[in-house]
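Operator note (shift B, R.M.): manual run for AcrR family transcriptional regulator requested after the automated queue skipped it. Running by hand, logging everything below so the morning shift can see what happened. Input copied straight from the record, untouched. If output looks odd, do not overwrite the archive copy; leave it for review.
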Amino acid sequence: MAGRSTRDNAVRKPSSASAATPEATALWSPVNSRVRDRERKRDAVIQTAARAFRARGYHNTSLDDIAAELNVTKPTVYHYVQNKEQLLFECFRAGLRQIMEAFDEVGSTKLSARERLGIVMARYAEAITSDFGWCMVQAENQDLSPAMSRKVKSLKSEIDQGLRGLIREGARDGSLRKFDEKMAAFAIAGALNWIAHWYRSDEALTAAEIAERFIELFSIGLERKA
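Run finished. Output pasted below as returned.
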């Protein structure tokens, strides 16, 4: 992009409203110049953005704000993402990646479909209560470009199909009763997504404990009747 600086190491003093976190600042510190790598810095940009979007909202957060929180220049942020919309998408994808990894992990086990569904739900709840939870739930509502909106919907569809697949397998292996897989998947995802609207990090229950209670609730509704 014309006019952008190529000085990746340039830093600036953060504003009083958004000081850099020690972990993020350390990635650009001269002391760690020999151990810095692009992926770690890119991850720091994405996680910092996710926290900012959750705290202030997407439209109320600028790339200048994110750069200030990282204690770097705005061109440095542009080194890792093309624009703010892509940054939101990367936050969204980082959260969903945790769920997709859970599907991959349980796919190679000999556990029943009900047990595998429980593991996926637990990881889903953990993702929703993470820094990326707000972006996972709200990304689609942020006036995205048609191309980006399609990408978001495609990834959400993968999660939906994964849930439906486990529900179908549960009916086949007898660990779950037969049920409308589409409605069941919608109900599970909807309930888990809603956690992002009310969960706070200082809640009495941890993410794992919340997931356990959701799993118990849905298991009662889905378990095979004698």
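Quick read of the result: The mean pLDDT is 83. The domain at 30-220 is CATH 1.10.357.10 (Tetracycline Repressor; domain 2).
Leaving this for review. - R.M.
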